[in-house]
Amino acid sequence: MSDPSALQALFYPRSVAVVGASKKRTKIGYEITKNLRRFSGTVYAVTTSKGQVDGLPTYPSVADIPGDVDLAVLAIPAPQVAGVLEECGKKGVRAAVIISAGFSEAGNAEGERQLTALAARYDMALVGPNTVGIANTDVDLNATFLVQPTKGGIAFLTQSGALGAAVMYKTVYEDIGFSKFASLGNMAGATFGDLLDYLAEDEQTTSIALYIEGVQDGRAFLKAARACSKRKPVIALKSGSSQAGKRAATSHTGSLAGDDAIYDAAFRQAGIIRARTIDDMLDMAKAFSQPRPGGGSVAILTNAGGPGILAADACEHEGLTVAPLAEETKEALRGVLPPFASVTNPIDTIAQAGYEEYAACMRILQKDPHIDAILAVIVVPTFTRIGYSTHAQALLDSWKRKKTLVTCFMSGEVTNTSVELMKLNGIPAYPSPERAARALGALHTYERWYHEHHDSNTD
């Protein structure tokens, strides 16, 4: 297991050395150096080239750097990595990220074992090799050659660098915020278990998302995941569920994909919520930005009958209950909604309902003792004079955080303002009832597991 202080140096270094820094825009070393210019600490460029790299003075080796180095990022040919890593150890570097490929994934298992031994000898936290890097938005540390991640509460750990890159770009485009990012590559050093132990204590992280192809030490991983789940939710996207996928995972990073049913059972035991797609994983992770429901009873508030029915189907499929409303709740709803509205659950306000009606409905539903969560499914009525963001503003103004609130806005680009309002206030918003229901189901699943294991005081 990695030393916690070394992992702290990995994510909160005071100084970073880029070994393989380059002036050439086509080189990975150039992109990493450029990304680190936003970092508040000291950055050193290590290269055989003369002159500056992106305005930084250069040094021919880590040993030549005049100050201390907490983190080294190696983007150099594989045959040079072991020698440089040993040099880092002698320099007192606490953590290293090895971008370089050409190890176990390419049949060079012995070279990779050498890196593991060096990291252990010098008590260094090691990420990689064959990784796209790590990031910590809390201190603007982007030790990757990818885009700058958006700041938020999700920590994302990935076994695939390419998938990690795709998710990083997707989250920036969709304005989903990360606290930490780590591409673990071949896991010659830090494992999922090591980083789960660390992130369980990380105050900036509210939920943890994992992309897993396979784990080498299942017992250690599940122990760490179970302990972490008692602190905050862990969501896993596990690939290799098919025979073709298992073969691909084995050849990709040398991982043992294992039997999918075994992973399912182990995940449930450890409190890990399993996602089936990338969208599922991110939808679930961002749902934990707000209060979790005390139970599984859901009130569906909608202005369109069809989407309300889809939402009800999706909720029941996720193990949630579309509960009957209290008689006093239905009576209060009749008093504020148009005559043709339905006050059973789902509550169909009809398209003419605007700000006043939605604000009143929210206030009423939050008082119903039978309801644990509210799922608002809105179709922006473009054929009326109601503003595109009217319903969103009404939900925000009347929500007192007494119930879990998950939202769905279904009219495409015209709902952008509404979705942005939700994001700014920490309320998850989704483009379809099914995705909203899956996210709400994840909240309920985790809350139930959390209470079962805290109440029983089981390890």
Can you describe this structure in just a few lines?
With 459 residues, the chain is α/β, with parallel strands linked by helices. The protein has helices spanning 4-11, 28-35, 78-91, 109-121, 161-173, 192-200, 218-229, 243-253, 260-270, 278-287, 305-317, 327-334, 355-365, 390-398, 416-424, 433-455; strands at 15-19, 42-46, 58-59, 71-74, 95-98, 125-127, 133-136, 141-144, 151-158, 178-183, 207-212, 234-238, 272-275, 297-302, 321-322, 347-348, 373-378, 404-409, 429-430. The chain is 40% helix and 18% strand.
Key features of this structure:
459 residues; Rossmann fold; six-stranded parallel sheet; elongated
Number of domains: 2
CATH class of the largest domain: Alpha Beta
* First-to-last CA distance: 19 Å
Mean pLDDT: 92
The helix fraction, in percent, is: 25-40%
Oligomer: single chain
CATH superfamily of the largest domain: Succinyl-CoA synthetase domains
Q: In order across it, which strands form the biggest sheet?
A: 8-7-10-9-11-12-13
Radius of gyration: 25 Å
Description:
- This protein is of the alpha/beta class.
- The chain has two domains: 4-287, Rossmann fold, CATH 3.40.50.261; 297-449, 3-Layer(aba) Sandwich (Rossmann fold).
- 40% of the residues lie in helices and 18% in strands.
- It contains 16 helices and 19 strands.
- The protein has helices spanning 4-11, 28-35, 78-91, 109-121, 161-173, 192-200, 218-229, 243-253, 260-270, 278-287, 305-317, 327-334, 355-365, 390-398, 416-424, 433-455; strands spanning 15-19, 42-46, 58-59, 71-74, 95-98, 125-127, 133-136, 141-144, 151-158, 178-183, 207-212, 234-238, 272-275, 297-302, 321-322, 347-348, 373-378, 404-409, 429-430.
- The strands form three sheets. It has a seven-stranded mixed β-sheet, sandwiched between helices.
- α14 runs parallel beside α15.
- The longest helix is centred in the C-terminal third of the chain and has 23 residues, at 433-455.
- The two termini are 19 Å apart.
